[in-house]
Amino acid sequence: MRSLVRWSRPSALSVFPEVDDFFRSFGNLYSAAGRDLPIEIYEEGDDLFVKVDAPGLAPEDVEIRLFPDHLVLKGKSQSEEPQGEKEGRTYHCCRRRSEVNYSLSLPTEVDADRAEAKFENGVVSLRLPKKAKEEGRLLQLKG
């Protein structure tokens, strides 16, 4: 069974990459805590289900590419809310930007042609039917 693993670009200048990874792991506890998306992957019968929280994104901002063994979810949203009066000077302007770029390895191969996706209350829900296992063809020996 496959599992999700955080990937980080190795440093070409590092003399001891294992030591760098050890110390970097402490920084990841704090810096990445607010950026990770809650993801749920589970199986029910012949289907695999994936749920990804994508707050602040609209359905038209989300792009999902499904392959037999993995899926890629991208989303981008940007808004600008001017504060203050229309005439004169602006003293405060709030800009929000949300960006998601996730690639997930799936624990089993899925049938991309029969997959379904929906977006409800900021949650992307996918139903991915598992690909039927090929048993192979039984050959009869002659002779």
TrEMBL record:
Superkingdom assignment: Bacteria
Pfam name, any one: HSP20
Residue ranges constituting the CS domain according to the UniProt record: 34-142
InterPro entries: A-crystallin/Hsp20_dom, CS_dom, HSP20-like_chaperone, Small_HSP
PROSITE patterns named among the record's database cross-references: CS (PS51203), SHSP (PS01031)
Domain SHSP intervals: 30-143
Family the entry assigns: Belongs to the small heat shock protein (HSP20) family.
Protein name: Hsp20/alpha crystallin family protein
